[in-house]
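Lab notebook page, bench 4
Experiment: in silico fold of construct C2
Operator: M.H.
Input chain length: 151 residues
Purpose: comparison with the prior construct
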Amino acid sequence: MPEECRNIYKNARRAAGFTQEAAAEQLGLSVESIRAYETGQRVPPNDVVEQMVICYNAQRLAYQHLHETNALMSRVVPALEQRSVLEAAVRIYNRMARFQREHGVERLMAIAEDGQIDQGERQEFEAIMEDIRDIVKSGLELEVFCGKEEP
């Protein structure tokens, strides 16, 4: 994949319509720092990325940065797929409707009633958690790729 497509910091800056010079000025950084981040010579610290997210109005950049630079994030938050607002909304609806049809909440409450998950309940609990993770993933896709960006 060409560098042009891979560099998330450059893509976010360009999408916001900033030159490297204008971005550096807005972010209080040197042009050399912006260039180093965009060429992969250095990885920007989280606080700089947070400033970029705000300046570039690019919430997606926060997710991309953390997913690419933080192994724990990659293990905890699923890889998201870019979807249109319609596609994301339909996925959420379908997953929540299926969860309701299959009495997911009632099954979870029955398992949780005694305050522990015993071996006989473990497999069903894991299946319920997989459904919940799928709902959460769809919600995150809607938020990250379609949600209102912070000013």
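Observations: The longest helix spans residues 119-146. The chain is about 75% helix and 0% strand.
Next step: discuss at group meeting.
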